[in-house]
Amino acid sequence: MAGNTFGQLFKVTTFGESHGKALGGIIDGCPSGITLDFDAIQAELDRRKPGQSKIVTQRKEPDSVEFFSGIFEGKTTGTPIGFAIHNTNQKSKDYSHIKDSYRPSHADYVYDKKYGFRDYRGGGRSSARETVSRVVAGAIAKQMLPEIKINAFVSQVGELKLDKSYEDLDFSKIESNPVRCPDPEMAAQMEEYIKAIKKEGDTIGGVISCVAKNVPIGLGEPVFDKLHAELGKAMLSINAVKGFEYGSGFQGVTMKGSAHNDSFNSDGTTKTNKSGGVQGGISNGMDIYFNVAFKPVATVLQGYETIDKDGNKVKTQGKGRHDPCVVPRAVPIVEAMTALVLADYTLLAKTNKI
Amino acid sequence: MAGNTFGQLFKVTTFGESHGKALGGIIDGCPSGITLDFDAIQAELDRRKPGQSKIVTQRKEPDSVEFFSGIFEGKTTGTPIGFAIHNTNQKSKDYSHIKDSYRPSHADYVYDKKYGFRDYRGGGRSSARETVSRVVAGAIAKQMLPEIKINAFVSQVGELKLDKSYEDLDFSKIESNPVRCPDPEMAAQMEEYIKAIKKEGDTIGGVISCVAKNVPIGLGEPVFDKLHAELGKAMLSINAVKGFEYGSGFQGVTMKGSAHNDSFNSDGTTKTNKSGGVQGGISNGMDIYFNVAFKPVATVLQGYETIDKDGNKVKTQGKGRHDPCVVPRAVPIVEAMTALVLADYTLLAKTNKI
Amino acid sequence: MAGNTFGQLFKVTTFGESHGKALGGIIDGCPSGITLDFDAIQAELDRRKPGQSKIVTQRKEPDSVEFFSGIFEGKTTGTPIGFAIHNTNQKSKDYSHIKDSYRPSHADYVYDKKYGFRDYRGGGRSSARETVSRVVAGAIAKQMLPEIKINAFVSQVGELKLDKSYEDLDFSKIESNPVRCPDPEMAAQMEEYIKAIKKEGDTIGGVISCVAKNVPIGLGEPVFDKLHAELGKAMLSINAVKGFEYGSGFQGVTMKGSAHNDSFNSDGTTKTNKSGGVQGGISNGMDIYFNVAFKPVATVLQGYETIDKDGNKVKTQGKGRHDPCVVPRAVPIVEAMTALVLADYTLLAKTNKI
Amino acid sequence: MAGNTFGQLFKVTTFGESHGKALGGIIDGCPSGITLDFDAIQAELDRRKPGQSKIVTQRKEPDSVEFFSGIFEGKTTGTPIGFAIHNTNQKSKDYSHIKDSYRPSHADYVYDKKYGFRDYRGGGRSSARETVSRVVAGAIAKQMLPEIKINAFVSQVGELKLDKSYEDLDFSKIESNPVRCPDPEMAAQMEEYIKAIKKEGDTIGGVISCVAKNVPIGLGEPVFDKLHAELGKAMLSINAVKGFEYGSGFQGVTMKGSAHNDSFNSDGTTKTNKSGGVQGGISNGMDIYFNVAFKPVATVLQGYETIDKDGNKVKTQGKGRHDPCVVPRAVPIVEAMTALVLADYTLLAKTNKI
């Protein structure tokens, strides 16, 4: 119950600190018989990897995964898949300045209060480096569900907002630019903006949108484990996320029911999709789409005043190699968590009828 | 895993259909020794009850709870608390029109697909009537945490939005009007608007904001079970919810890190609270606040075209007694779910240190 | 986690104290589409009911079950099945003598220490009356698995031991006598013995054997949730149980591997079945069989000395209407718990392969 | 739910196959602040290690553990402890003979049926090699509970049975002989017997007894998660275990209640302890003691006939390096599982009272 497990049947438990020996996890409940594409797994890790472009952190981590178990002759065996990503580039000295003081809007203070002390190196367990394990697990979940297509992309950076329906976007262009925005023009603007922010030593927030197509009807467990509730939790569990909305979302509150309702076609599909592919917590076969809000990264490379363990004021400065904007690298993480939810709920749905 | 349980240590499992014999649940894991205030429990049920004002559904349900177990001489015993709310006003005939057809943006269609058939009376299990059990459990959770003060209120109805910080509101006025908006002037506007919407036979969405004060430092289980992730799931599990944001939320994405960070005071409190009382998924002792978006109720009292089980087009009309706007009655539900999360995480936090 | 839930996918949570208003539970995860035979459910309750013969407690409880939800037009809907057995014959005065003192080998003392106080009436939550809810749930689990045949029977009472292989017994005779021993001669001896014990105001232990036939191959989740491990936990969770063995059991320790191994037939069945139908924690299609040891009931109708809450010695006497030997009435409980395990593991096994 | 996790709050998930790259696991929920004694952890692994004496398998595995996370400056941090034991001596060729045939009384056949195929090398996931991870986790659990003293020992090998109360044994002698029987005379007999069995190419079963002293009052979660039920499941989850009994066990069934009851002393202790330290599923502060029955190892180094995947009869012969009797090496495993249950239930008990 200590919170390091996600999923009920397709269960992922992760371990690892930012600057420890290794991060990794165990996937328990992955069905047997899935032929794994290891290159595809690595490709997902590469999308999340630091140092991949000029607008992300310049740390260098190969982020290659070692599998220990649960795979035999290239296929999943149904037994737990243990894996690790070994840390190779641990510049602990970068973080000595936070050993005894608390960075604002980080988890330093609350970890100390909750656990009595903390591994302060690079944020320890609270670092977004933990998500490397999620990406591995999500890549396997994707391979369990080959029909489902999940695409996340950056739809907003600061005030720069992509005001188009996802249906008017060309997802094949997502990976064509470092921002991971499928609109090239907007992507270019966002990239320039992030570079300017970086130059200031500052950071900026953003929004990731995600669309899952070909999700079968019937995923979702009422009443508490509604599909969108689990998706929401999955997204909110990602570092720096402040909000989640699906379908009509916060905009939907201003609509009248007569305008908001999605009329049926004869085949059970709906003419509109303000429901966002989920009704009563259960997938209805339409596209699932949602938005995830990320705050600006808390580490700014500017001087600031904060407190130490004894409550004394100290002056310090952000150091290290950090992302000026987290959303480009968070795209594969959003996809991974989406895949984990869908894999889990696919297994759950196998048990609904006699 | 069928989704009817919420919480890990303070665990609530609910049962019941809209028009079945009874709804109810079991609270397992409630600590022993809590002297229960039964009037306070009933008061919460009354806040959620149909028929309480002109802007809510006019169904008449006494919604009184019968406790079966887990309480002895007025105190919780540490054993499971079984309870039921008996249905007394089951107008099944109101719903005969949906027996063989699917209402748009309801769960009728997906339940049939998922389970093979459904209890169609009043929406069956997918009805928001299920939340009556949550309110009972939440009322007990509140009593387990007497120091924590949870206040939810309506902050938006349609386009009518309360643009004030919660700190400038007088929570004692929330219950002074049927909308449950603490600003009397805005409340009056909202009430008029809902009445007009009702007259049209239409419905409208809204936002509920919630503030939890005096939450101790250290609640929240990284990495997947972050406090705000569980709060988000709790809210998204409520019928008609489309979005959740906490702290700076979706607005926060437009901010720079230097402006968004919450500087510390010497005592560990922060000068600002864009974090919304949670950092790294763990409560930091500041106020927790969040917004919950509700779509307009799908049942509109107007004629519409839809399909039947065989995909034939049918013309039908919304019937029954429904809420034109769900947020006034959802206020106690939001509070209840908040209390359940905080009770559960309070128990979890007892096990962090040796 | 407070221990009142059994199962992972076919999940039963029970509530209720011996002398409270009602006992009952929620079955969550029962698949939809099972046509329930309510008479068969009541028949199981009748097998467990007090007052059914001269060798069991003479309390009178109708033990009829009220279903609240999860059933529509006679079939399970896939939503939670809430139910209650209302207490109608609460002779609380029978138990006033234990309000302030602790009965030896009962749970009175530990409940007080664990929870701070207790519902002392009839043992409260620690009473075997709780198992009435298990029998309801087990009866539904049996109906989910119509091919599997589960038969439990009394194989030992005190020193009177049925030294026959279960294969030489006629299970149709189990219900032909009040002891529920399928060997009529031994049954008669056991019955006389129990009557004699009862006359003494004393109690005696016994063993229940159970056989499950037609269990499909592949139930069981290695490594911790082996099928027999879960069966063992299920049995050990029944009041008064002190031991569990399956297959060759404790006798098997004296055998050599060459003699203990079960050779295969060409069709995958085995020539012998010392494995007890489970290999490596997974069912192999052979009969599953096991023994469950029950201690003598702790309540003896004789004077004895014990202590009160303050540690003072007090003299008291067993009162009330108690079973001189628990095993005849525990037969349906053993079957119910077996059915619950098999139903749960049947659902789990649906998710093993892609 | 795939069965590779044990515990609810002190949760251990293991991974690894007999001849895979590594075995290991994640301990999630270990409280922060425990100063770990790494030598003590290795010492437990050494007690379980192959090759430690002439009566156990002669495989050579160093079995040293690498910790990846959750430990900082020698202390647990409250975050998940990831660890691996790397396989260094993988003689896969030893097992080629079982690639296409099924060894009797092993898990080969059921794994193939359940998962479609299997990692056949050394039994894959069904090998007792998996328990190496349990020993690591159990060693840490022991260190979390320094007051509790857990001692397991061999009390029976074949027909050679130690007929003494555990109170008359000197636990300091357990490690003085390779059998791990605290009675030197009986230990010598057992050792000779196992050597003779080994010479025959055969195997023999045995019983391990275990005693836990200084367990505080109040551990155990009624009704399904009784302390002894969880202990029973823990033991039954160990490879080759066929039975579990605690306190008076199977012997207790022959006793009368008047003789079986444990009378109280004024301080709440009991004059006798037939309850085995647990009443109503909750520890009462007396010694907890139980017996665990192990069948003879299925791999006998003799020729035998079995079937292949297509049901054809094949003649084959046991190969490899196997234990003639599993109990000497299983002693630390029994202790580890006991420690895991007690650690988990210690955390659970922190949440019982307000």
From TrEMBL, chains A, B, C, D:
Q: What is the gene called?
A: aroC
Q: What does the annotation say about its assembly with partners?
A: Homotetramer.
Q: What protein name applies here?
A: Chorismate synthase
- Cofactor binding note: Reduced FMN (FMNH(2)).
Q: What class of enzyme is it?
A: lyase
What family does this chain come from, according to its entry? Belongs to the chorismate synthase family.
Q: Which cofactor does it need?
A: FMNH2
List the PROSITE patterns hit by this protein, alphabetically: CHORISMATE_SYNTHASE_1, CHORISMATE_SYNTHASE_2, CHORISMATE_SYNTHASE_3
InterPro entries given for it?
Chorismate_synth (IPR000453), Chorismate_synth_AroC_sf (IPR035904), Chorismate_synthase_CS (IPR020541)
Q: In which pathway does it act?
A: Metabolic intermediate biosynthesis; chorismate biosynthesis; chorismate from D-erythrose 4-phosphate and phosphoenolpyruvate: step 7/7
Report whether Oxidoreductase shows up as a keyword of the record. no
